[in-house]
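Hi there,

I know you've been waiting on this one. I reran it after we fixed the sequence typo, so this is the corrected version. Both the input and the resulting structure follow.
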Amino acid sequence: MDSELAAASQWATESNAAVFIRLISGETESGVVQAMDSEEGDEENEEGEGADVIEFHPEFTYPIYGEHERIFGYKGLSINLNYAAGSLATYFNIKYTKRIEQMESTSAVALKADDIDTPMRQILADSVCATQSEFAQQVVRDTRVFRPSGRKVHEYAGRSSQTEQLRYEIYSSSFNDAESAKYHERIQAFVLFFIEGAQFIDTSDERWHVYTVFERLDMNGQTSYSLVGFSTV
């Protein structure tokens, strides 16, 4: 029994490390697909030709996968949340090398893989892209045409080096605006990932205001926007 339980423990994965969040912008569908298909953590391949990627892990996943933040039943697990960098159009997929239900089990220990898909989809907006191809098309389109919703209240500049100047814009919006409300449905998952004890706010309360910060980019002569952060007050 002890040896069987020890063997079963090898199928446990830390959920914070298994979740990969990617903000992707791109000028070509092939570049976006290449960036998504690259191996996680492979710095040489994380950006495809014609695509820019920012990849990171969440600080917390207990609201999705339980207080122990562990997932049972998989090896080589990666849970991929791919977002268009500006619009936050979303594509969610799961990859693994082995699943325990595909392996032989014994009568002494019941082995069943955790449900990964359902808990994650419960915190995502309804409008998740169904296929990688659909998402790649959306990223390329949004890289060109997406503009922040709401009212621009401030802009400022900074520098990442002596030569490169960065430009940022801050927008204010409320849930009375349908476009802003839909955008908040896509952005609110980040609250659970990075603020301990956070919960979704009541969007029917008209007193809430949302402030979003975007970096304004010049991509081969075209203006593009990438989300930097947000706050609700």
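Quick highlight: The chain has a mean pLDDT of 89.

Best,
R. S.
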